[in-house]
Design a protein that fits this description.
Layout: H1 25-28, E1 49-54, H2 64-73, E2 85-90, H3 97-112, E3 113-120, H4 128-136, E4 143-148, H5 167-180, H6 182-185, E5 196-198, E6 203-205, E7 213-217, H7 226-229, E8 239-240, H8 249-260, E9 265-267, H9 269-272, H10 278-286, H11 288-294, E10 297-301, E11 323-326, E12 329-334, H12 338-343, H13 352-359, E13 362-366, E14 371-375, E15 379-381, H14 393-404, H15 419-427, H16 432-447, H17 463-471, E16 476-479, E17 482-485, H18 493-502, E18 506-507, E19 531-532, H19 537-540, E20 544-545, E21 548-553, E22 559-561, H20 562-571, H21 583-595, E23 600-607, E24 613-615, E25 624-626, E26 629-634, H22 648-657, E27 660-670, E28 676-688, E29 691-702, H23 707-714, E30 718-724
Parallel strand pairs: 7-9, 7-10, 10-13, 29-30
Antiparallel strand pairs: 1-2, 2-3, 3-4, 4-12, 5-6, 5-9, 6-8, 11-12, 13-14, 14-15, 16-17, 18-19, 20-27, 21-22, 21-23, 23-27, 23-30, 24-25, 25-26, 26-29, 27-28, 28-29
Helix pairs in contact: 11-13, 15-16
């Protein structure tokens, strides 16, 4: 299936034939017109009933609109608690009230469209936060949209989705972005040694100067083979891809879309990354972030589980959109937003796709229902009138501002981070440099839950994001994945504090984590599942760390102190790009990479005695205390799955017989949401004298001032030379 709209058409809706579906008499009697008759002075008019009370078991199984109503009710997880339901109309689901103001939103909806869903009878929607809460319920299943059939298409109004890919509308999105977003979405750099696919000849080639090109982000499948990958990326001489009909479906479809959008060149990792010469391969992998950043557009294949599925609307049929007509109104299914689509996709779980999406300036998502477009300044989708309807540059800018600032932002960019971290950075008045560091930690936390085919990719699949921050002026580096700020004005003693704070990372869901044997146990990269860094910049300056004389051991047996590494990384210029002509810069970068990849941490650690722990119930961590401080949660797991559950009893027994050890990483104070004092404890398993694996992290906290007393007690702890591997 490779179809495209008539090139002479100015709008996809003009060539879409609406397949009207039959509905039951009860649904045909719904008074949708009632929701369009209201005073424009109040938003509460949208929370009005357009169908009286009904029960879910009264819906007709043969009616498509009844199925949409039941799907809408399914958004409520506790729907079994409600007997009676009602169909209600709401403002636009993307909540554009923030930007365009209540009046404009009301006029838009009153003029041509309403969004409908089933809610429990008596549900109060007089407050705006209630509207948002209700809208969030629809993220997984979408809305029922209703518009006046006679109305012309308009911005933020629902549209019937084309059954096939519409290149014309995407071209308009790209043109609007290129012409009105200036430096926010346009780039002027290039990637050295970039090999591209010529979509006309199917040749692999180098092109100078570097042309505009499209990149593909997708999930590899079982169709990868030596014949299909290695042969075509090895030599410098021009080579040709296999015949189109032998390529995976998603690659065939992407080549078609690239040409339909007016581009000639395409970058796909399986062909454009050298798979034979390991030195060249490493250089190209180091440039992955730059490759996606410099692409004019990244096509993102969110549908399906692998490369055999293809792009819906091109080589794969789209999910059929429900549409029907009642009187002068068209009723249709309005699909889920792109965040929901990506989160529940196989593509959204993969490690490499995180930076591919994050660093791309423009992204075109193919879902089973529609195409989404997201750049650094705006968002568009086929189901909603967008910037393609703008008549002047001023209206383009207004649309861009509306979508970039909406609460239900579809895309992802470096500025979009966990809400708690963003909130913390704002309220603590951190310098801009350290706010950027907070953003980095938030992104690292999100990335850490992604899945990887190869465990050794754990750090390098995120390296492009780190380079992006370095290129943006943040003096950040990492030691085997543990992030640290290396700025010249900092004191050397800050290095020890930072590293102890970085070692204090925790798993959010520890019971699900498992070891990655390729990396040491002391780094987050050596484990699966999502982590977070409780001792970030708001506290590491006041962090009192207890590991002393920190050094690192490397594969060749050499040992370097943390202070030596600090000085080396401060002096070196770690850039975002590696230039073939600038050998000194490339050499410095290679040297730095060696510095930040140790296999062991050597330090003099403070060993916590077992008599500082007390438990009411030896099977429950929440009943215990450390030095009078309550345990927050267990954030770790055993290295070996065959070990018993990590209970307090097992922990205390391990300390008493010497199979386990407890090391004091440090303690700190936090301010938000209220002032608390925390102790950070690292649990290790001894397997040789003085050598250990990290197996768990414990955090205890109290609201009482304990710094002085704990500091005095910690000064009496036994000091031991420990090697963490």
């Amino acid at each position: 299936m490779s179809a495209s709209p008539d090139e002479g058409s100015s709008d996809s809706s003009s060539w879409i034939s609406l397949e009207v579906e039959e509905i039951c008499d009860s649904c045909r009697a719904i008074n949708f017109a009632q929701a369009f008759i209201a005073s424009p002075k109040t938003s509460t008019k949208f929370s009005q009933i357009i169908r009286g009370e009904f029960k879910l078991d009264e819906l007709h199984s043969e009616c498509c609109l009844c199925a949409e109503i039941e799907l809408s009710a399914f958004n409520w997880r506790d729907k079994a608690c409600y007997d009676d339901w009602q169909l209600m109309a709401f403002p636009p689901p993307a909540s554009f009230l923030d930007l365009v103001g209540d009046a404009m939103s009301l006029n838009l909806a009153a003029a041509g469209a309403i969004w409908v869903q089933a809610v429990p009878s008596g549900w109060s929607l007089k407050r705006r936060d209630s509207l948002i809460y209700t809208a969030q319920r629809t993220l997984h299943t979408g809305w029922i949209a209703c518009y006046n059939t006679a109305c012309a298409p308009g911005m933020f109004l629902p549209k019937v989705i084309s059954p096939v890919f519409d290149a014309i509308i995407v071209k308009k999105w790209l043109a609007a972005c290129s012409s009105s977003h200036s430096h926010l979405c346009n780039a002027s750099g290039s990637v050295p040694g970039l090999k591209l696919i010529d979509c006309v000849t199917l040749q692999l080639c180098y092109v100078e100067p570097q042309p505009d090109y499209i990149a593909l982000s997708y999930v590899w499948g079982e169709s990868q083979s030596i014949d299909n990958i290695l042969v075509f990326a090895a030599a410098d001489s021009p080579q040709k891809l296999p015949p189109l009909d032998s390529l995976p479906q998603v690659i065939r479809d992407t080549i078609y879309v690239t040409k339909e959008l007016g581009f000639r060149y395409l970058w796909i990792d399986r062909y454009c990354v050298n798979q034979i010469d390991t030195i060249i391969q490493e250089e190209q992998i180091d440039n992955m972030g730059a490759i996606y950043h410099e692409a004019e557009l990244t096509i993102i294949a969110t549908a399906g589980d692998d490369d055999r599925y293809g792009l819906p609307g091109v080589g794969v049929e789209r999910t059929r959109q429900f549409t029907t007509e009642i009187g002068s109104f068209t009723i249709m299914h309005f699909p889920s937003d792109i965040q929901t689509v990506t989160k529940r996709s196989k593509w959204g779980t993969r490690g490499w796709t995180f930076q591919e999406e994050l660093l791309s300036r423009r992204r075109l998502y193919f879902s089973d229902e529609q195409v989404f477009f997201s750049c650094n300044s705006m968002e568009c989708c086929e189901a909603l009138g967008g910037i393609e309807l703008a008549t002047c540059i001023d209206s383009m800018r207004k649309y861009s501002t509306a979508t970039s600032e909406s609460e239900f932002h579809m895309g992802i960019n470096v500025g979009e981070i966990d809400g708690s971290i963003k909130y913390l950075a704002q309220l603590t008045n951190l310098p801009a440099e350290e706010q950027r560091y907070q953003q980095f930690l938030g992104l690292l936390s999100q990335y850490s839950e992604r899945h990887l085919t190869y465990e050794f990719d754990s750090i390098r699949a995120f390296a492009g994001v780190q380079k992006y921050f370095e290129y943006g002026g943040l003096p950040i580096s990492s030691i085997q994945g543990l992030p640290m700020l290396f700025f010249e004005r900092a004191l050397l003693e800050d290095a020890s504090k930072q590293f102890a704070a970085a070692l204090s990372w925790e798993h959010i869901l520890p019971g699900r984590s498992r070891r990655r044997s390729f990396y040491p146990s002391w780094t987050w990269a050596g484990w699966t599942e999502r982590v977070h860094f409780p001792c970030a910049t708001e506290s590491f300056h006041g962090y009192q760390g207890y590991p002393q004389k920190i050094s690192f051991e490397y594969k060749d047996g050499s040992i370097r102190s943390l202070q030596d590494i600090w000085r080396s990384l401060v002096q070196q210029n770690l850039g975002f790009y590696q230039s073939d002509q600038d050998r000194k810069r490339a050499t410095a970068f290679a040297t730095a990479k060696g510095l930040i990849s140790p296999i062991a941490v050597l330090s003099t650690a403070a060993v916590v005695p077992s008599d500082l722990f007390a438990f009411v119930n030896h099977s429950k961590w929440e009943t215990g205390t450390f030095f009078g401080m309550e345990f927050l949660h267990l954030a770790g797991k055993h290295t070996l799955d065959c070990m018993p559950p990590f209970s307090p009893l097992y922990f205390l027994n391990g300390l008493s017989v010497g199979t386990l050890g407890c090391l004091l990483l440090g303690f700190d104070k936090i301010i938000l949401p209220r002032q608390k004092y925390r102790a950070h404890l690292l649990i290790v398993q001894w397997y040789r004298p003085y050598e250990a694996h990290r197996i768990a992290k414990l955090t205890a906290e109290t609201e009482e001032e304990i710094y002085d007393s704990l500091s005095q007690q910690a000064g009496k702890f036994e000091r031991m030379d420990v090697k963490l591997v």
